[in-house]
Write a structure and sequence with these properties.
Structural class: alpha/beta
Radius of gyration: 21 Å
Order of helices and strands: EEEEEEEEEEHEHEEHEHEEHHE
Helix content: 10-25%
Largest sheet: 9 strands, mixed
Shape: globular
CATH superfamily of the largest domain: QueA-like
CATH architecture of the largest domain: 3-Layer(aba) Sandwich
Strand order of the largest sheet: 2-1-17-16-14-3-12-13-15
CATH topology of the largest domain: QueA-like
Number of domains: 2
CATH class of the largest domain: Alpha Beta
Number of strands: 17
Length: 354
Amino acid sequence: MNTGLKRTDYDFELPKELIAQTPLTERTHSRLMIVDPEKSGVEHRRFDQVLDYLEPGDCLVLNNTRVLPARLFGRKAGSGGKVELLLLKQEDGDLWETLVKPGRNARVGQRIEFGDGRLQAVVEGLGEQGARMIRFEYAGIFEEILDTLGEMPLPPYITERLENQERYQTVYSKEKGSAAAPTAGLHFTESLMERIREKGVKIAFLTLHVGLGTFRPVKEDNILDHEMHAEFYRLDEENARLINETKDAGHRVIAVGTTSTRTLESVVNEEGRVQAGSGWTSIFIYPGKEVRLVDGLITNFHLPESTLLMLVSAMVGRERILAAYRTAVEEKYRFFSFGDAMMITGKQRNQDGE
């Protein structure tokens, strides 16, 4: 019988002081907890020792999305009232789904100015859950203007100001479009990636643009009633071939992050092969739902009662993960986006939710 379908089944006590507010000076110096489904307990290592748990022939799959400087501060045309705007999703050309604070300053027809009028916007309609549909007006290249006027949209649990904006980007970020970083990748450096390749481990890339829905809490008591947000993904032919060759040779595909996992599990077919393509995925992975392609996972420590924690629990079981989280709290691991990492080296078959 499948258990672990209640939201409260994924709750745990987390002292606020364990929520990392700033990144470490050295990316690879974060702690790394090893969870091996074939062994009891956990191991405590440093992230650059991840190399010891990778084998020649394995394939690491990384999400190369790049976070947009999507937080804009402007003023209402006419009154001059302050407005904060957060880009969520590009709908069509210069039309974006956004969040606006305060919402009363974003009535349909309202014009907003940013950067002394260099960028202007008009509220064209209402979206879901209080969002606003906004069309931008400007001269030049929108991305360049955004780089100048925008700020990094840090998660709501981070209250410290980020001095170096690149620390909320992975070193391999390339495709602009995310409202949040795929944070499991923040621990990698170019040097570490080169050492990984030298060991004979393949590195494949895909793109999934992370939406702010990734932070949306599960409110329903039964997790199956939760409606997942949709996110855009892309996997090209070359990287699909690398992943399929790894599986054909009997080696592990190890996803870096829940975003890579969700993408891979969205594009695998009945024969267990990934298919190149692009589209939108709203896949929800939880204990009892088979993880078909991914053999291992590198991930950060996630929010209580979150869909991300449910996904991680699907790999080796809810009780095993919650025990590891209790250990992480006892050992004072750093949590969430700028926190420490966990590596699940394999998956337990036939998960029943426990």
